[in-house]
């Protein structure tokens, strides 16, 4: 059974303290915070859909590069070796650490791929005249992919491993390493420029018969 | 006044506020179809369960070796702390500090901080609410960085496979360490920060005071 929506669309509850309040109409680039617990409730972004589309396309290209070419190589008295991100997980699997290998693959490859893929599909879907409900279904799962996507953590780990190995061998940073650096910056920009509220305002509702509040947020005052 | 006190439910994925249909107690979000709850179900119990599991894994994670280096001279196993010490050098000490912080201090701080939050919520504390919710946000934000050591070991193992000269194998501690990271992340996710405010909210209603 679906709940009934409120007549006043500007009424919200803080996700961290449940305080009922009215979301004020704010300018792009500024944000609204909960007066009781200081949680950021909404940060409005300028031209959010177009910018996120551009950034997620760029992230997709870099992600492809980062996972196909070698990331690290080394030479030591005639021996040479190199590895990719996926190669790291595969080696762990072969050494009998299957569960950790799956976790590494999940955090460093699967979740980032989901994060980029979902974002791209959501933005493409939301730019249409009347976005359908499936855009919302995808958007529901974006926070999960984002939470477990750990490219930036992996990059720090790679740097530490590099420093360790540099004691024994000559280390050669691969193209994928530079692609990953750029990807970390792009993903951060992509996420912070995205305004989920804008998409939620546009998507079709799951309960097609709900009496939806009139489009356009009514003018509201900040409650205190 | 909170949403729960008004009988309203706020969707944790799309943020829409809605009222359960007449005769229903909890329903689905009319916009995104998510099942709505007033508070995360059994939040304190689930958080505590994950914390206990994490604390159990914390011991082998720190005392068992995470990596074994095999050379012509023999085998040598290192725990996480030994890895930090090995990394300490005139050039490498900042990275060594980062690993120390991410692998040893963040997981223990997370367990202790969540225990503190669980205890104060159970006691119905109404003090330091803003600080407590800020503490929750900090552990939510920095928790993922504990994974750094898992990646360090993964790529060291992947790269140093130069048999018979030198090779590195993962050791059993790595699994327990990864388990601590995942379990503490799940613990943070199961905790509902709105519980921190519930005692204060009900007292505010009784005294009819304004929040701000």
Description:
The complex is a heterodimer of chains A (224) and B (212). Chain A has 224 residues and is an alpha+beta fold. In chain A, 52% of the residues lie in helices and 13% in strands. Chain A has a domain at 48-194. Chain B is an alpha+beta fold and 212 residues long. Helices cover 55% and strands 10% of the residues of chain B. In chain B, helix 1 runs antiparallel to helix 6 (173-190). Chain B starts with 8 loop residues before the first strand and ends in a 5-residue tail after the last helix. The mean pLDDT of chain B is 89. Classes of the chains: A alpha+beta (224), B alpha+beta (212). Chains A and B meet through strand 1, strand 2, strand 6, strand 7 and helix 2 of A and strand 1, strand 2, helix 2, helix 3 and helix 4 of B.
The gist of it:
By secondary structure, chain A is an alpha+beta fold.
Blueprint of the fold:
The complex is a heterodimer of chains A (224) and B (212).
Chain A: E1 4-5, E2 11-13, E3 20-22, E4 31-33, E5 40-43, H1 48-68, E6 72-76, E7 79-83, H2 85-94, H3 98-126, H4 133-148, H5 151-165, E8 170-173, H6 175-193, H7 196-202
Chain B: E1 9-10, E2 17-19, H1 43-63, E3 67-71, E4 74-78, H2 80-87, H3 93-122, H4 129-142, H5 148-159, E5 161-162, E6 166-170, H6 173-190, H7 194-207
Helix pairs in contact in B: 1-3, 1-6, 2-3, 3-4, 3-6
């Amino acid at each position: 059974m679906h709940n009934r929506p409120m007549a006043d669309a500007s009424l919200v509850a803080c996700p961290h303290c449940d305080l009922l309040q009215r979301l004020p109409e704010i300018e792009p680039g500024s944000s609204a915070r909960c007066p009781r617990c200081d949680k950021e409730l909404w940060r409005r972004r300028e031209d959010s859909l177009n910018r996120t589309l551009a950034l997620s396309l760029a992230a997709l290209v870099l992600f492809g590069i980062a996972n196909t070419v070698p990331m690290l190589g080394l030479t030591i008295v005639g021996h040479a070796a190199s590895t990719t991100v996926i190669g790291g997980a595969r080696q762990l699997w072969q050494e009998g650490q299957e569960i950790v290998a799956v976790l590494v693959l999940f955090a460093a490859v699967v979740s980032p791929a989901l994060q980029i893929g979902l974002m791209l599909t959501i933005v493409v879907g939301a730019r249409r005249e009347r976005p359908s409900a499936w855009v919302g279904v995808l958007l529901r799962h974006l926070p999960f992919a984002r939470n477990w996507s750990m490219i930036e953590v992996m990059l720090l780990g790679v740097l530490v491993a590099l420093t360790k190995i540099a004691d024994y061998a000559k280390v050669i940073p691969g193209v994928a390493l530079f692609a990953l650096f750029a990807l970390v910056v792009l993903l951060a920009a992509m996420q912070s420029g995205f305004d989920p509220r804008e998409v939620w305002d546009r998507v079709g509702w799951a309960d097609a018969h709900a009496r939806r509040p009139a489009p356009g947020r009514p003018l509201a005052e900040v409650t205190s | 006044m909170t949403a729960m006190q008004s009988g309203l439910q706020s969707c944790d994925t799309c943020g829409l506020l809605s009222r359960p249909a007449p005769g229903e107690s909890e329903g689905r979000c009319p916009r995104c179809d998510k099942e709505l709850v007033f508070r995360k179900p059994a939040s304190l119990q689930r958080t505590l369960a994950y914390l206990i599991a994490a604390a159990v894994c914390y011991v082998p994670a720190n005392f068992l070796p995470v990596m074994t280096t095999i050379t012509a001279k023999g085998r040598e196993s290192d725990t996480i702390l030994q890895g930090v010490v090995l990394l300490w050098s005139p050039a490498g000490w900042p990275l060594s500090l980062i690993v120390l912080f991410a692998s040893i201090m963040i997981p223990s701080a997370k367990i202790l901080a969540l225990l503190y939050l669980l205890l104060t919520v159970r006691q119905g504390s109404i003090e330091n609410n803003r600080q407590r919710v800020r503490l929750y946000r900090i552990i939510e934000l920095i928790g993922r960085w504990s994974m750094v050591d898992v990646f360090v070991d993964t790529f060291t193992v992947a790269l140093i496979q130069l048999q018979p000269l030198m090779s590195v194998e993962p050791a059993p501690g790595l699994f327990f360490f990864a388990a601590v990271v995942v379990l503490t992340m799940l613990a943070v996710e199961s905790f509902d920060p709105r519980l921190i405010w519930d005692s204060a909210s009900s007292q505010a209603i009784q005294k009819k005071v304004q929040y701000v």
